[in-house]
Amino acid sequence: MAAKSQSRAQIQMKSRRDYAIGIALLLCVVILWTSSNFVTQDETNPSHKDLYEDGYEKPFLVTYLNTSAFVLYLLPFIIRRATKRSHRNAEGGGHSGVYEPLMTDVDAAETLGNAARTEDPGSGAEDDKLSLPLTPRETAELAAVFCLLWFIANYTLSVSLEYTSVASATILSSMSGFFTLGIGRMFRVESLTLMKIGAVFTSFVGVVLVSLSDSSQPQPPEPTTGTSYLPTMPLVGDAFALLSALFYALYVTLLKVRIRSESRIDMQLFFGFVGLFNILTCWPIGLFLHLTGVERFELPQTSKAVGALLINMAITLSSDYIYVIAMLKTTPLVVTVGLSLTMPLAVLGDFFLGRPAKAQVVFGALIVISSFLALGLEEERKTEESALSPGDQEAGRVHVEEEVSLSD
After folding, report:
1. Considering only 123-132, 283-292, 324-333, which range has the smallest mean pLDDT?
2. Pairwise CA distance, residues 166 & 152, whole Å
3. Which of 270, 277, 250, 278 is nearest to 336 (CA)?
4. In this model, does residue 70 exceed pLDDT 50?
5. DSSP secondary-structure letter at 397?
6. 103: pLDDT strictly greater than 70
7. Are 363 and 160 in contact (CB under 8 A)?
8. What's residue 25's pLDDT?
9. Which own/partner contact pairs does 231-237 have at CB distance under 8 Å and 24+ positions apart?
10. Can you say whether the dihedral through the CA atoms of 161, 166, 169, 174 is positive or negative?
11. Cα 160–166–168 angle (5° rounding)?
12. CA-to-CA distance for 161 and 234, rounded, in angstroms?
């Protein structure tokens, strides 16, 4: 009995530690994204990045280059494979001692996965399947689906900024919290409680307050040369922003459902495959856009635009890798709502730069922080309950007074 209690305590402690690490990684992503915005913003117009200030409105090319940069994550995998092959050749193809595979090693994942399937090919138990490490083939298949959803989510958000205001795009893209909660419930990775609904709603209200306040600020005169930044087709832009929020919710939920735990997958190999599939499969879209005149292929002409493009690529390369790990250690809803923390962090950055915010902006930022803290505490409790009883994935039903059943 004492051993069982100790085991439960260890499981609970590990779950709490992983959750804390996930929150810390999420905060790193928020800092990276906010820093990127400050670096790439023009001082006279903080609502538009240098790429747009210089008239370089190429949403497809920017998204394509950012995603293609993920292929660099294949280098460690290639080097590791080459090193092992040369090591085996040096030893004459033999082995000495006992080899202990690491969970992050794709070779170990393939060996363990294939062995388990060979030993029990007809078990079909879902829990056993979800505990096996993903093989390189399974990792590639997951990366192919993720690449499509990720590209659409980011491309549609970039396109929306060409047709609608930054405030509208920001507000509608923050609807991803509602989509994530609904889709997560459908796939049984999220429980629908009053606390979660309230946290998502209040976070959305905070985003609205900050965005509307920013849009009411006096804008500088429109430049005589370059592209106009006034919304040309706001309904089209709003539709693209909403579509981005939907696909964003789809891809974070997909990863949580398919991977469950980051120990089951080599994340470097996963993102490397994402970059490779993006390079191989998405270029025809760019060719079509070029031939139809929707987006002509043009390289940036100014050093400022080149610098902003490289910064965005570097931030995307590091932040999205960290972000996915943070999501796997927490939940899709936590990281989705957590990204709204870029707003209060930006308000704090403006304060230190001598640009104090209005009371409405400060109030909206405080609402965002409060909703994230409330959601974080709720999800931490749910995570610990799931860790103690992994067979009961619908832990939210324990709290009937809070549960909002979709089936009834």
Report:
1. 123-132
2. 19
3. 250
4. yes
5. G
6. no
7. no
8. 95
9. 231/163, 231/164, 231/165, 231/168, 232/162, 232/163, 233/163, 233/164, 234/163, 234/164, 234/165, 234/168, 236/163, 236/164, 237/159, 237/160, 237/161, 237/162, 237/163, 237/164, 237/165, 237/168, 237/169
10. positive
11. 75
12. 9
- Segment holding 110, helix H or strand E: helix 106-119
Mean pLDDT value across the chain = 78
C-beta separation of 379 from 333 below 8 A? yes
Is residue 395 classed exposed, middle or buried when 0-12, 13-18 and 19+ CB atoms within 10 A define those classes?
Answer: middle
Q: What is the model's pLDDT at position 304?
A: 80
Average pLDDT of the residues in 12-39: 86
Report which DSSP code applies to 42.
E
Span 121-133, pLDDT tens digits: 444 455 556 678 9
Q: What is the DSSP letter of 340?
A: G
Question: What radius of gyration, in Å, describes the C-alpha atoms of the chain?
Answer: 23
β partners of residue 41: 49
Q: How many CA atoms lie within 13 A of 370 on its CB side?
A: 13
* DSSP class per residue in 66-80: HHHGGGGGHHHHHHH
Averaged pLDDT, 288-292: 94
Residue 373, pLDDT above cutoff 60: yes
- Structure tokens belonging to residue 20: 């804390």
DSSP 8-state symbol, 193: B
pLDDT at 129: 62
- Contact present, 166 and 47 (Cβ < 8 Å): yes
- Residue 23, Cβ density class (10 Å: 0-12 exposed, 13-18 middle, ≥19 buried): buried
Q: b or e along 238-262 (b: 16 or more beta carbons within 10 Å of the residue's beta carbon)? A: bbbbbbbbbbbbbbbbbbbbbbeeb
Nearest to 373 by CA among 331, 341, 405: 341
Q: Flag whether pLDDT at 178 surpasses 90.
A: yes
> Of 250, 322, 342, nearest to 23 (Cα)?
322
Instruction: Name the band, by pLDDT with cuts 50, 70 and 90, for residue 214.
Output: low
